[in-house]
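Lecture 7 notes: from sequence to structure.
We start with the chain below.
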Amino acid sequence: MTADSWIEISRSLILHNYGIFLKLAAGRDLLPIVKANAYGHGLEEVAEILSEAGQIWFGVHSAAEAQRLATVAGKKKILILSRTRKEDLAELLPLGARFTVVDQEGLEETEAEGKKIGQPIPIHLKLETGVHRQGFMPSDLAKLAETVRESLYLDPEGAHGHFANIEDSTDHSYALQQMEQFRRALEELESRGVRVRMKHHSCSAAGILFPETAFDLLRVGISLYGHWPSRETLASARALERNDLDLKPALSWKTRLHQVKEVPAGSHVGYGCTWKAGKKTRIGILPIGYSDGYDRGLDRAWVLVRGQRAPLRGRVMMNLCVVDLSEIPEARRDDEVVLIGSQGEETLGAETLAGLIGTINYELLARLASHLPRWVVD
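Predicted structure tokens for the same chain:
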């Protein structure tokens, strides 16, 4: 069956970006993050590409993502980065799952499940260093250490934290404070008899700017897919002379012209009559809309048709939108249309579209609908 709209993932570009971070890892383990459907790229598709390249570790957000990952990647080391409900521990453990524990209740629940199944459960302790969402506060560490030290069913494989302000600023003083807090927490745990084997407090931006934040495991998310985390990260990398990474976006989003027609001068296009043709106008109908992840605020955007820009007209609808083909007279029904990616000499990036709706590349990519087929190319 053909598709009205589809996403193409470049195998060679995923592997290109992966190679960059293997080099930055400098012998440490690498943890590609494939949560949020691999940042919109397709969890199964990306996991299969990286598994074939020999990747062992993967990071996901949830139990459901861990199960999906295991169906295509086989038994890997799968770190679930958020809390896992106790009911799911025994089912996920044989898949190679490691579990992030965020509070004392989670420690006790995990220990009880380990005792029930008769084996230690590998855990990664989430240490609060300044984001103030999930994680053990400094005041929790004494009780944490006592529970882990005295348990036969908790295997403290790792500990990790996360940055709050490393991408949004070129001033990294807060990030450095977080790193110091993380080190202090690790030192306190060790002084209380808990020594973890894998320490990690990194992300794409940290891995680029401060490789030492990886400790034993370099986590990489958005940049695995070829995107700089932010303009501030790029500016900081330039200042540090680390901007020569040549990241290459691996995703293209395409559709086809479903109909081409002319509307008379004075015609209104779309809901709300927000756009009116000032002259006889040739328009094209695209079978994509906000239900596909093409945001309703993108009515100021454009698409690429036959290598040229075609601006949107009227509102983005649930399943359809309209583009102006007046300057592309050669455009025809069923022509390929690029929503994200390149065509001819023109390129339309996720960052450009995100800027039009006042958001970031992360959100725009992660919201690409899961029902869109993902096709691995080259």
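Points to note: The mean pLDDT is 96. The radius of gyration is 24 Å.
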